[in-house]
Amino acid sequence: MLNYYFYTGYTQDGSFKFGFKRDSDLKNLKIELREKNIFIKKVYTLPFFSKKEKSEDIIILFSQAKMFVKNGYSFEKIFEILSENKNLKIYIDKMKNSLEKGDGLYEIFKNSGLDLKNSECMLIKSGEKSGNIYKAFDDIENEIKNRENLKKDIIKIMIYPLIVLIMVIFLVVFMGVYILPDFIKIIKETSQELPFITKMIIKFVDNFYFIFFLLLLIFFICKSFLKNIKIREKIFQKLMLIKSFRYFQNIVFVSNFTRILEVLLSSGITIIEAINLVRDETKHIYFKKKLEIIEENLKRGKTIGDSFEKINIFSKIDLELIKSGEEAGELVETFSIVAFKNKEKLKEKMELGIKILEPVTIIIIGIITGGVFLGMYLPIFQMMDNI
Hints:
globular, single chain, about 375 residues
């Protein structure tokens, strides 16, 4: 993602400078302006003008790049050709500059500003180490495609409940503003006590704008807090105490970890070197510590299977597969099987979650809708009973 910045500063001769600039992060912006002899005094991020690349463009980029790699093109030529894509030109120009500085492929893509997951960057690093860039790009392309298909499925499921929810809110506000006040006057004249649910609806309508802006404020506060890496890590540590969340994260980790090991080991890198590479790029302390335990056990002379067993992340079937693969000298093939198996398991769980999500959201909205209409009509029924 490219952020949009407004900066003010001075040149070496003391001239005042200001301007607007798109960049992936503030650090890169400062380096770029310093190279132009502009010393920044203040920088303001303009979030509403920030630009996020489309996933379709990233898929096309990796699809084209892998074919050029297969045909033996140099990356200098590849980036030159890919820069014709106007939607990604800013990103690819950053890649070209990074290549000219002598950076490796991993650094080039990681610092490009493209919205790539940590596991995808690790695939580039492992592909670079193994010399199999084509496979790394192909895996990334497929991973992004799967992620986008999942997003589309969730959006399709959520469209109907969202439309219903918006209609319910509209009806509540409309009835609360134009219909309820007249009924309330009549009810008060009869000294009739309003039902609790009706009182709650009236309070919601009366304070609708306040509630809306309060929720908006809470959203932006949470968003700004979540930008802090330390806060994100603390939240992740707390969530890992929840069994279902930990189970899901473990499957994701095992799938990515074994796939990267497959690529690295096939290139002749030792298991300890491979684990070091993965550990250095793992963003969560929880999994870093697990990888340190594996490394420590391997250095003590433990087998790979026994070392993996110590971290309590791999399933019994996965451990048996790894142990048998280690004994047969077919670890690369075994890691490929384990990675695929966990990827399919993850896909199954997510598809199940999506199927459950649809009826659950409809039930929740049904309860809300029923509550709203009950709150609206209860006073009317009470009045009719008193007539």
